[in-house]
Amino acid sequence: MAVTYIDYDIQENIFSTEEGKAIFDEKSRIERWLLIEATLAETQAELGIIPKEAAGLIKFHAKLGKLDLEKIRADYRKGKNSIIPVIKALGQACGHSAEDWVHYGITTQDVVDTGQMLELKKVLFVVERDACSIEKKLILMAKQYAKTPMIGRTHGQYALPITLGLKIAVWLSELRRHIERVNSLKTRILVGQLSGAVGTFSVLGSQGKILSETVLNKLGLKSSAVAWHVARDNIAEFSAVVSMLVNTLAKIANEIFQLSKTDVQEMAELAFDENAMSSSAMPHKNNPVLSQRMVVLSRHIRALHTVVLESMVHEHERDPRALWSEWLSIPQLSIYAMAALENMLRLLDGLRVYPEKMQANLMSYGDFIASEYLMLKLSKKIGKSKAQKKLHDLTSLAVTKNISLRSCLMSDSELTGLIEDEDFNFMENPSHYIGMSESIVEEVIGVN
Amino acid sequence: MRAENYFSPIALEAQSLLRSHITDSLFFGDGYGTDEVKKIFSDFSRLQRWMDVEIALAKTQADLNIIPVSAANEIERKGKVSYLNVEYIQQQIQKTKHSLIPLLKAWQSIMSSESGDYLHFGATTQDIQDTAQVLELREVINIVERDLKEIIKILAKLAKKYSSLVMVGRTHAKHAMPVTLGLKIAIWLDECMRNYDRLMQCKKTILVSQLFGGVGTMAAFQDKGAVLLKNFSKKLGLETPNTCWHSARDRFVEYLSVLAFITGSFAKIANEIIQLSKDEIGELDEPFYEGQIGSTTMPHKKNPEICERIFTLAKLVKGHASLSFDSLIAEHERDYRAVRLEWVTLTDASLYTCCALKLMKSVLQGLVVNKNNIIKNLEKSSDILSSEAIRFSLSKKLDKKNAFDYVYKASIQSLNKKTSLIKELMSFDKIKEQFTESALNEIANPSKYIGSSVLMSNNMVCKSIEKFELSQDISVKYIGQKTLIITYKDPLEKFEGWLVFDGLDHGLSAGGMRVQKGLTQFALQSMAENMTKKMRLCGLPVNGAKSGIDYDPASFDKKLAIGRFIKAIAPFIQSRYSMGSDLNTTMEELTQIAIAQGIPSVKIAIAKEQNYTLDYFHARESILNKMAIQNWSLGRIRAGYVVAMCAARLRHHLHLEANKSKISIQGFGVLAKATIVGLLQEGYSIHAISDAHCCVVSTQSKGLPVQQWLQTSGNTLPKLSSTKDYWVLDREALVQQPTDLLILAAIENAVHIDNVDFVQAKAIVPGANLAVTPDAEKILNQRNILVLPSFVAGSGGSMSMQALFGYKNHPSTEQVLNYMRKKTFSLVDELMLFSQKYRITLTEASEKYIHEKKIPYAEKPYEIEEEM
Questions:
Q1: What is the Cα–Cα distance from B409 to B418, expressed in whole angstroms?
Q2: Whether ipTM exceeds 0.90
């Protein structure tokens, strides 16, 4: 039975990716726990904590294929622990002599938390890889459109000219900060733990610390001086950084969604594909489906991140209520995030940009575009507050009378001689008023 | 309470030092709350409310002899925050960390120790604070209820005003299909009405008291707990809860959820306005007030500032609502963490909501609708908007799959080549064989493809009237898709009345109001349908309606009865029902009664639909009082005039000469007399007339000397006896007279199965309803006698309204009569043509004509495009 979009078989990978699902696949997770148990036994044998023969047997049997899967399933149905059925099966497979040395001196959460860290490591690899690919694409686009003028919008309303390159440079700089965050995060959070039931190394004693360091080192994780069973800040930081990244992507997707509206048409997601119909009723439709999916993914990730934050509040030495909330959130959140990254790559690959339409929209606003420029000009001559009032009145007049600002300026007696031909020329070429857009883009691209 | 120096710099600084929450900001607080709601939550109001609850407790306990009456009296007498040492309370709360005890101590310190002992007797702090919190929310709910209702009314007005304004509908941010702005707004309206229901439901649940003591057992009240709780609740106007709810906070979560629904819906509306006000779209704008500044750097900017604020407030409310779910998880018998959370969530969310309501109201009140841009955007995409309509039309001749594929391919081509969809469709041979370009263009007309948009928006408007503006004496029911029946039950005399709407797909409904003993809803229903037929005959974008009361018209109290009925249906008169006079009512009396009820005219809906000021409307309406022919005013002659014109035109179709044709008229009331005047004006003579008593038949070819009889008032002929010029016969003799045209202008069933065989006319024009019974009509048809349906000759009222209001400037009476004459002629011509073409009777032809008639959508109900 596949009951969520993540697992759907027929509508495959709409809100997930193959790669992401493979990381959190149930059997892979159990294999990961077995790997931890095997590494533990091996290291314990090296340190003389358990017999070498036992460790050999444990290592040999610590594969899901060698265990009685039906038995494990039956035990999970009866039991209330999240790992005992696996350990029991491993013990039974190892036989009487090694059974007692399986999972020696550690607690369930040691294995599960360490296992989860191994997963997050893989997720972070994918996230970084894809974020860097997106970065490369954005750099190319920013270069390509560095001089392409378009209207800038604030409050959803036309404001002043910018270039598309500048818009993309803003995305780029934001994305780069996220990549930095991911890099910094990796140095901090990829830490496992093996300190026993209440984090005191009660069984392993003084050998515990070296054991834990060696095992985790072998697994590719760092070890922590103190147990983090109830200190979930690392997980919360992971979730926060990933959500931030995805929300930036959603911001970009929303911008594409807005700019591809029929009324705007400055961009479009994937042109018509002969076989991909957007609407069951309206044959003419070409919907921005990818950018919409991005927004959906970001909403879910935001909500899931709230749960993860809530799960920081553990009680006493261990608190499964908080832990389990994390278990339900982290895999979904990670899979959605990886899907969002992949979606973004596809979206950018198929993105159409229409510089002519950008120019047309820019020109359609007539000379209002130049209002700030004119204000600066006039301020020098009649003072800022007077200039502001004057232009406000004249633009209102132009709107109510539906005439050009230019004619209002020309017919205003107070402004006679104050506006020069050069200024009128400016109004006709709003693309002159893109400020430092181009050099900002160059600067952003230049910084690596 | 503001001191003189409130705004002095020092006072301001001192004030702002300790007030850092944005709602308290002297500068920005206005954007996050309203003064009205802030007062409810202010520090002093809160303390005073706690004291009020303590007083109610003491008084109730005194009533039940739990505490001495004197103690309760002193508690009440000293129970004002202003009597207390507020500074002490503030310090002690900080020190003791208790929220109520310091207040009680300060209060006790100003009363005798005997009374002081009985303060807060047996209650727990949370009892007092929870009850006070409920009282607090009661005040907020009243504001929310009031404002939401007003917003609903504004939305209803907008939905009606723009019910047929066609615009682009968008899905996935792309142009999809045409809709009307009215429908868009009707959806907002429906949503807000559901939120209103939620608020009312929540109000019922939430308004309960709390008085159960430390762990909810009422231990301190001994056996008097239950009665104490009941009386205490009653005193405060609250319901009595079943059990204590110290740790069951669901009521407040429900309240906050409802606020989140209300503001969430507003955010949707605000966002729609923001989106549609973008420069590329420019269809809507929020009002921009004089003095408002859009941008510090760009003088031209007009930003959708208010809508953005509404959007933000909704997010804040949502945040508090979701926080409140955490307070559901309270532990054991009491858990103050929930209460502490509520002090923030309830307060802030209430402030934000009230502010959002205020802002939403101002946006909707001044909503700017840029029709030019709406039309422009629609025209730009007109062919793609109709891809579904085209697909349906194609699939009638091709199969469904093929139809979709053709339109799909053509869409791609048109987008790639930037040509029109229809041009591309015409490039396929298969399509070219079956369709012409103009046929496809006709299908692609967006205003033809708005489905039931108009009907649905008008329906919503009626539902909102039904919900908010009708008294209890009124009930409303829908029959099928189109009939709306408003039933009135008179509380005084117990008679019944009805207002029946036959269809709501236009902005206006018109029809008369009658007073008739034994009147039934079903009779009115068929009369309303008849009205619709008349409207459609005249080509008017108006729906039929009819109203009336089952009441004795001779009763002394008739005017009062009509007055109560009109008052009850006033919201409909104000919005869509244009009332006329009918059986046993006159325009003068209806107008008089309406004015007494504060309604300026029973036809006020016309003024609104035509966009007239009241004065202009009155000036236009008063043309009806002007003399049209001799001493006949336009208002009195119009109905009869059209009957006369129908007769005149039928005469033409019978190929008779005007001065040689014989005309008989049954009746001598206003309708019959007006018909006679109309006919005389056209140069006809009248051969026979009957009233309730007798029948006069001319013996001369020049006809009856009817001119002199017209001066008599009332419904009867002057007393006559036979002369050489005419004979006076029994009144039944009229229908038996050999005549060319028989006009029935008096009663129902004038020609029936028993006298039909004696009819010797060539054609019958029934001016009155049902003057010819259906079985009689069948026989007349067999005998090849033309019978015009009564709704044709009876359409004078509707036709005159068209002429009266349709012209751009005030028309003269001649202009109105002329219009009616030409319109009647062309109508009769068309019906005759239909009847001959399809070999069907005139009644069948009329029904067919009405059925097939296409009424185009119109902004105003009455508009005459060119001089006829």
A1: 13
A2: no
